[in-house]
UniProtKB/TrEMBL annotation:
Pfam families: ABC_tran. It comes from Georgenia wutianyii. InterPro entries: AAA+_ATPase (IPR003593), ABC_transporter-like_ATP-bd (IPR003439), ABC_transporter-like_CS (IPR017871), ABC_transpr_LolD-like (IPR015854), MacB-like_ATP-bd (IPR017911), P-loop_NTPase (IPR027417). GO terms for molecular function: ATP binding. Keywords: ATP-binding, Nucleotide-binding, Transport. The keyword Nucleotide-binding applies. SUPFAM superfamilies: P-loop containing nucleoside triphosphate hydrolases (SSF52540). Residues 19-256 form the ABC transporter domain. This is ABC transporter ATP-binding protein.
Length: 258
């Protein structure tokens, strides 16, 4: 079967938003117990960039990521992925879109234990009934340093290696955006640094787009920019973040909310 067509390189259209929220709101529950998790969020995540979302616990980070990824429905506003409005899609279309145009990396790796590393990486293609693009597969395997681990099962891999397999799996379909939820949360600092370097490499060298939720200012410093959330609203952003500038940004939020 022919390989799926490659997407147009991101660099051909600089500063194009890969995914954006417009007036996005999310209310859990109703009446007295209603929780306003997002209160009219306007934010755009640029294609070909690595963006971290940070903010205090309960500020709405996970809710925003789930809505951007089409995993949950908004109460109001819009999510636009490329030129597709997610908020206008039905369940079946959303399922297909998530499979083909969105990648996920989770804190807990979420690999299938009975499959080899290679089978885990190519799983999204299997599910879509397409053959992996061999050139892209080779690029991912070599970039992520997995060539000599392909026949191993997850239990035979270190945490860092498992997360690299999960990154390759997230990237195999060349999705519009990869959403990473605390991807280094279960890793020691050395493996975490390695995984973050690979995420940055997949943006800088492979033209991918990554949006990562993290609590860790050091992890956020690997991103091109940081979006700060507080109380369900965008509270600021930091370009070219360092651990120090991120900490200062988070401290400023606490002061404002104190
Ligand atoms: N399914 C749900 N039902 C009810 N309330 C929810 C639900 N999910 C989240 N919330 C509430 O919405 C608000 C935002 O939660 P969210 O998980 O998005 O925050 P967060 O910034 O990711 O937090 P954390 O950093 O602790 O993971 C919180 O007040 C939370 O309790």
């Amino acid at each position: 079967m022919a390989a799926p067509p490659r997407r147009i390189p991101v660099s051909s259209s600089p500063r194009r938003p890969a995914v954006q929220a417009r007036g996005l709101s999310k209310v859990y529950g109703s009446g007295d117990v209603a929780v306003h998790a997002l209160r009219g969020v306007d934010v755009a995540f640029t294609a070909g960039e690595f963006t971290a979302i940070m903010g205090p616990s309960g500020s709405g980070k996970s809710t925003l990521m789930h809505l951007l990824a089409g995993l949950d429905a908004a109460t109001g506003g819009q999510v636009v992925l490329g030129d597709t409005e997610l908020t206008a899609l039905g369940d079946t279309e959303l399922t297909l879109l998530r499979r083909e145009r969105v990648g996920f990396v989770f804190q807990s790796f979420n690999l299938l234990p009975m499959f080899t590393a290679l089978q885990n990486i190519t799983l999204p293609c299997e599910l879509a009934g397409t053959a992996p693009d061999q050139g892209w597969l080779d690029t991912l395997i070599d970039t992520l340093g997995l060539r000599d681990r392909l026949t191993h099962r997850p239990s035979e891999l270190s945490g860092g290696q498992q997360q690299r397999v999960a990154i390759a799996r997230a990237l195999i379909t060349r999705p519009d955006v990869v959403f990473a939820d605390e991807p280094t949360g279960n890793l020691d600092s050395r493996s975490g640094a390695e995984v973050l370097s690979f995420l940055r490499t997949s943006v800088r060298e492979l033209g991918q787009t990554i949006v990562m939720v993290t609590h860790d200012p050091v992890a956020a410093s690997y991103a091109d920019s940081v979006v700060l959330l507080a109380d369900g609203r965008i509270a600021g952003s930091i370009d070219n973040p360092t651990p120090e500038s991120v900490l200062a940004g988070l401290d400023a939020l606490r002061t404002v909310n104190a």
